[in-house]
Write a structure and sequence with these properties.
Length: about 300
C-alpha cells in the first residue's frame, strides 16, 4: 500500500495512468498465459497423481513456454497495441522491453506460490506476498536517494528486480521441500495438467476478462489521467475480493483431500462467514474512498 501511494504521488495522474495500463497488460498475460495450469497443479498434487519433484519440474517448464508465447504475441502486435491503447503516449522500446520482461516473472511467481501452498508452507507463501513490494520500495527509495528522478521505466525496473529476487528465493524454498530428482519428462502428466487446467481456465477466463476489460475500454476511449482515477475507484472495490481470493486459495487446497459430503458442509460454513466479512468491508470502503483519493493525489 505504501509503495502504491508513493508511486501515485511521484508520477502524477498522467504517468500513473500509463503505468496502470502497463501493469494491466502484464496481469492479463499472467492470467491468460497460465491457462489454469497453476490450479491444476494443486489438484494433481492433492489427488497424489504425481510426485512433487515431478510437478515442480513440469510446472516450471510449462511456465517458461507460456511466458515465451505471451512475449512473442506482444512483440508481433506491438504497433496496433500502442496505437489503440497508448495513443500519442508511445512507449519507448526500453520501457516496452521492461514490460515484456516482467511477464515471465509474474507467471513464475504465481506458480511458485501455488507449489508452496500445495505443500502447505504458509509462512513462505505469505513471505512472497510482502517481500516483492518491499524489494521494489527499497530499490526505488535507493534510486531516489541517489538523486535520480523516478519515471515509469524506473518503476518497471524495480518491479522486475523485486520479482527476480522473490522468484529465485521461492524456488530455492521449493527445492528444499523436496530435493528429489524429478526424473524424465512425463507426457501423461503434461496432458493431465493441460486437461484439468483448461477446464478451470474456461470457467475463470470470462470472469477475469469481465473484471478488467473495463480498464482496456477506458484506455481506448479516454486519456491516461482518466485511467488513473478510474483505476483508483475500481481497485478500491476490487480490494474486497482479496478476502474472497485469500479464502478461496486455501479452501481449494483443503477440500481436495475431503470427501464430497464433508467438502459441501465445509463450503457452506466458509461462504456464510465470507458473506458477513464482505458486507462489513464494503461499508468501510464506502466511507474511506474520499480520504483515499486525497491521500494518493494530495488533493
Amino acid at each position: 500500500m505504501a509503495l502504491s501511494i508513493w508511486i501515485a504521488r511521484v508520477l502524477g495522474p498522467d504517468n500513473l495512468g500509463l503505468l496502470v495500463l502497463i501493469f494491466a497488460i502484464i496481469n492479463y498475460s499472467d492470467e491468460f498465459g497460465r491457462m489454469g495450469i497453476d490450479h491444476a497443479a494443486i489438484y494433481v498434487w492433492g489427488k497424489k497423481e504425481a510426485q512433487f519433484s515431478q510437478l515442480r519440474r513440469h510446472v516450471f517448464l510449462i511456465a517458461t513456454i507460456q511466458a515465451a508465447i505471451c512475449i512473442a504475441i506482444f512483440i508481433i502486435f506491438r504497433k496496433p497495441l500502442m496505437s489503440a491503447l497508448f495513443k500519442q503516449h508511445d512507449l519507448s522500446l526500453r520501457w516496452y522491453a521492461l514490460t515484456l520482461a516482467n511477464i515471465p516473472l509474474a507467471i513464475y511467481l504465481i506458480y511458485a506460490r501455488k507449489l508452496l501452498l500445495a505443500k502447505q508452507t504458509l509462512w513462505a507463501y505469505n513471505a512472497t506476498l510482502w517481500s516483492a513490494p518491499l524489494c521494489q520500495l527499497t530499490l526505488l527509495a535507493l534510486t531516489k536517494l541517489a538523486g535520480v528522478a523516478l519515471t515509469i521505466g524506473w518503476v518497471l525496473a524495480a518491479n522486475l528486480a523485486g520479482q527476480i529476487i522473490v522468484v529465485v528465493w521461492s524456488y530455492c524454498e521449493i527445492l528444499k521441500l523436496d530435493p528429489t530428482p524429478a526424473g524424465p519428462l512425463n507426457s501423461h502428466l503434461v496432458k493431465n495438467l493441460f486437461r484439468r487446467g483448461l477446464q478451470m481456465y474456461l470457467l475463470n477466463a470470462v470472469s477475469f476478462l469481465q473484471k478488467r476489460f473495463d480498464l482496456i475500454i477506458v484506455a481506448y476511449l479516454l486519456e491516461p489521467k482518466a485511467i488513473a482515477f478510474y483505476s483508483l475507484a475500481s481497485t478500491a472495490s476490487q480490494m474486497l475480493w482479496k478476502i474472497h481470493s485469500s479464502v478461496g486459495t486455501l479452501f481449494y487446497t483443503v477440500t481436495t483431500e475431503m470427501k464430497v459430503a464433508d467438502a459441501a458442509g465445509f463450503a457452506s460454513n466458509v461462504y456464510r462467514h465470507l458473506a458477513f466479512l464482505l458486507t462489513i468491508a464494503a461499508a468501510l470502503a464506502a466511507v474511506m474512498i474520499g480520504p483515499a483519493v486525497r491521500l494518493l493525489y494530495g488533493a
